[in-house]
Fold:
Amino acid sequence: LEQPPSWADGERALNRERREDLFRRLSALPGAAVLPSGANFLLFRLAGAPSGLAARLLKNHGIALRDCSNYPGLENGGWFRAGVRTPEEHALLAEALRAELKGDGPAILRKLPKPALMIQGTCSDAGKSVLTAALCRIFLQDGHRVAPFKAQNMALNSGVTALGEEMGRAQMVQAQACRIDPDARMNPILLKPHSNTGSQVIVLGRAVGHMEAREYFTAKRRFWPDVRRAYDSLADEYDVLCLEGAGSPGEINLKSADVVNMNMARYARAKVLLTGDIDRGGVYASFLGTWMTFAPWEKELLAGFVVNKFRGDPELLAPAHSYMLDRTGRPVLGVIPMIRNISIPEEDRAALPFEQDGQARHADSLDVAVVMPAHVSNFTDFAPLAAEPDVRLRQVRTREEWGNPDLVILPGTKSVAADLAGLRAAGLEEPIRRHAEQGKWMLGVCGGLQMLGTDILDPLHMESAEERTPGLGLLELSTTFASAKTLLNVRRASTPLAPPAAGYEIHHGVTRHEGGSVPIMFREDGSPCGYGKGRIWATYLHGILDGDEFRRAFINMVRVDSGLSPNPSLHASYDLDGALDRLADVVREHLDLKAIYRILQLKR
Structure:
């Protein structure tokens, strides 16, 4: 039987391609004579080369070129030797030589790159965001000034920076892992889906419009300069960049317009780790299949593989790792175990990430039902509740799942009118009304606030073709969608409870109140950010339950009104910074950091 080509054969073929690329680029220079070669370098002569060309190339462009004037027989000058590298490096060399030959130096073509590591995945939800956060914290712990970066993010969960910029929630968490302020440059393009095929497009923290998928696919390259500038400015300020890819770099149909995976890695000159979710099965086939879609330059960027979410003895994986090394020449650099009980906010998976059916709870747990709309946004608002041992947090999508909740939460949504129609179609309006009539607690957040009102007006058709959608009518609130988007970071809000609240606002809606539904939550400047009537509260503050003291006060208030005993001595901590340290400890133990530091040419 014919044996498959070995890794060495593939490397020799790749080297031939790169040598031919360098030969073509050097031959195109004025006055160049390039000698054929079978080695990993080329000898060439440049007629009329200025004196000290190699030294000027190093000083002005950061590129080392071997001056061969001390070789026997080449003393007459003009002879040089260039090593075979990647096509991108060949292009930089040729451009620098052309500039020096024309006398255009000493303008530097581009600064030397900062060390950069990119985490890509074989699929969505492979663990890229969490692994990137872990590496951000590890680099920080090891004494490096590090910043996260994700060129393009599609996520329903976003946050607001101190400057009022909107960006992906995952990059905000990664910024916290670096202990730096979130900055929209860390996520220059954010897509927030509002339908199966369309998204709101946010560039450098500001909404620039809505686009259907086909429209954005052809238009997104025009945002590429914004991505490059954002990355370069971060690279100027930090020592190490930790990048995250999106989806999978193996999506062949997306490669031509890629701005977030391998094209971004090439621009940043980042080394890539490809991670896969072994819990789903088929992880090694996914690794190998992704590798097979790579062009030679993409394979050059890949440093190794990381197996994620493993349960069991990692030594049993050794034969698979040997197989991958033999077929690709790239090692498996880590096996990360399935990590539990570390509350890192998830990015774009529409589920309550910390809900565990088999987990022991108090016998008198508060039953909290979150009504999950189709286009739910910022569902991580309720993750802190899942950390509370006396709370049972569950999703409700159908009438059959309703049960007998003590507290009902209506979360945010990117399509209020459509999701309100979906809620009604699912038969949930009647149990919601019955719950309110029984005097039980209800909390609406952002889109949930708007649903609880009497009507939703959309004269500009920001979210819907309907100009008016009747709300649930449980609060006397009327919301009108405006073209300007409210983006606020509220550090201290007053509420009916003693502990202050905090959070952030992201909404187009402008809400006015009347009748018995009065403002009950106020920003620092005294303007309202929440309304209430009896046991129905509604707020525009995302993240209002993150604060431990406010969350416990709210839970105990609802518990007492639900006939349950309060738990004033219970202090569950939603400590994200501590969770990031624990996450870093796990990843540090199971990742070959020595190899990664060597690849990045960093000191530990």
In short: The first helix runs from residue 7 to 27. Residues 426 and 492 are 37 Å apart (CA to CA). The longest strand covers residues 477-493. Residues 7-102 form a domain with the Aspartate Aminotransferase, domain 1 fold (CATH 3.90.1150.10).
